[in-house]
Amino acid sequence: MTVKIEDIYKIAAHHRFQWEKAQNCYVILFPEGMVKLNGGAGEVLNLVDGKSSVAKITEALVKKFPDADSIDKDIIGMIELALEKAWIEKTN
User: Fold this and answer.
1) Domain residue spans in the chain?
2) Nearest 10 degrees: CA dihedral of 72, 41, 3, 17?
3) pLDDT tens per residue across span 8-35
4) What global pTM score does this model have?
């Protein structure tokens, strides 16, 4: 699936995204288990709210991490991975 900058995504049904204090990271919880997310993946999915476009998510993360190189490609890559894993779904 091709991700476009105007696309809007939300956390998929039967999945929950949250900060897990015991794991010291963001996680995705679902009936079959839990996925621990690395820092960058957690930052991206933390902004997937069903309202913000990929462009807005990218803009927010570029502001938050101004020294990161090619961050837009990393964000798109994370969203594509999350789609493949069915952690998120398109809203528009």
Assistant:
1) 9-90
2) -140
3) 999 999 999 999 999 999 999 999 899 9
4) 0.91
